[in-house]
Amino acid sequence: MFSERLKNERKLHHYTQEFVAQKIGVTRAAYSAYESGKRQPNFEILKCIAQILNISIDYLLENSNQKRYRNMVSTQKSDLGAMAEELLLEINKNQETDFWGEPASKRQKAYLQAAIETALKLSKTNPK
Predict the structure, then answer these.
(1) What's the domain count of the chain?
(2) Which domain holds residue 50?
(3) Which of 16, 54, 76, 78 is deepest in the core (most CB within 10 A)?
């Protein structure tokens, strides 16, 4: 459901409703209504939300499970640690996941999970 995906994505980014509302130019109450399913954003606001959360509009509208919004010229700063932790969460949810365009096996997921966890541990112990 749109409202659930919207809320989950906002929380994954550790954004408040107030922050997203300010960025898209609506009141916090209006944004809250999007998350509760009481209102639907217009297309321009939907585009802004997708850009802020770095996800595709199709994913938000449940037309696709392809989550990432691919933008060659991004004005947002990427947080690689947050992206890695988000990827770990998705792997742990055990949802259908692709690996190079093909369904991922349990073994591939386990290897990827171990690699990401190791990289995160190493980066936290020796940040430079």
Answers:
(1) 2
(2) 2-60
(3) 54
